[in-house]
Amino acid sequence: MYQEKIISPPSGYLTFALFIVLLAGAIFCFATESFIWGGCILAFNFFLVLPGLIINNPNESKVLTLFGKYVGTVKTDGFFWVNPLTNKRKVSLRANNLNGQQLKVNDKLGNPIEIAAVVVWKVSETAKAIFSVENYLQYVNIQSEAAVRHLANIFPYDHAEGEETSITLKDGAEKVSELLELELNDRLSRAGIEVLEARISHLAYAPEIASAMLQRQQATAVIAARKLIVEGAVGMVEMALEKLSEKGIVQLDEERKAAMVSNLLVVLCGDRHVQPVVNTGTLYN
Fold first, then answer.
1. Is the CA virtual torsion 193, 194, 200, 202 positive or negative?
2. Helices and strands in the chain, H and E counts
3. Which of 158, 163, 165, 166 has the most crowded CB, counting CB atoms within 10 A?
4. Residues 78-110: pLDDT tens digits?
């Protein structure tokens, strides 16, 4: 596997000045009817001097090859002159955003889900990006999709009923993003690509089970709310019985205590307003 070799070619300003001087010399030769010398100078100027001038912009690089052999990479921005016979390939070093398409996959529990990710990446080693893979842009797209699919397969979308999973796609966003970034860096390192950030941008149940899963989530929420209400109601009934017994306001036998507990639980746990019934007789009639 090719390792990146950074080179610093000579400045192009002196070479450009030489180009101007030679061009002026060629014009002078043609003016004095020295056509052979003028033609030679022009050929040397346009075939050996001018093609070697390159401009490297900030966050840009030039990968140089000479007759199929890797020469080096120019990463410094500026105006340079290199061997005019080398092949120069421009590689951007800027950060790129990959907005992945929505993928339909199965999570760890076999539920069909839709998932997509946003990946921020850049080329860190130009030699690997050019020579190790056929097309590094396509390589990033395909490997990113494969990593997202693999991540969705090893984690459930949400906690299963009666099971507390440590990491889920829905609740463990930070941990899932960290694992996705690590896997992408491992997959893309062979192409000289560095992943700066990876995040899940879309996560939902597939349309065919979305309605059923929504009902399950609503039922879970209702059960949790009812559980909290019952726990609070039992505490209030217990407190009421203790206060009545402590202050000696009224003495209730076990049957009347059971009736009172039943009435209070109906009042406190019901989801509708209770209509009171006034007893004008005794507690036993």
1. negative
2. 7, 9
3. 158
4. 999 999 999 999 999 999 999 988 998 888 888
Q: What b-and-e string marks burial along 22-34, b requiring 16 or more CB atoms within 10 Å of the CB?
A: bbebbeebeeeee
Q: Are strands 69-74 and 96-99 parallel, antiparallel or unpaired?
A: unpaired
DSSP string, 54-112: EEE-TTEEEEEEETTEEEEEE-S-EEEE--TTSEEEEEE-S-EEEEPPPEEEE-TTS-E
Phi, psi (deg, nearest 5) at residue 275: -90, 115
Which amino acid would we find at residue 46?
Answer: F
What the block records as the tokens of 281 is 């007789």
Q: Which of 84, 58, 56 is nearest to 71 (CA)?
A: 84
Which two structure tokens, joined as six digits, stand for 267? 């009042």
What are the beta bridge partners of residue 99? 118
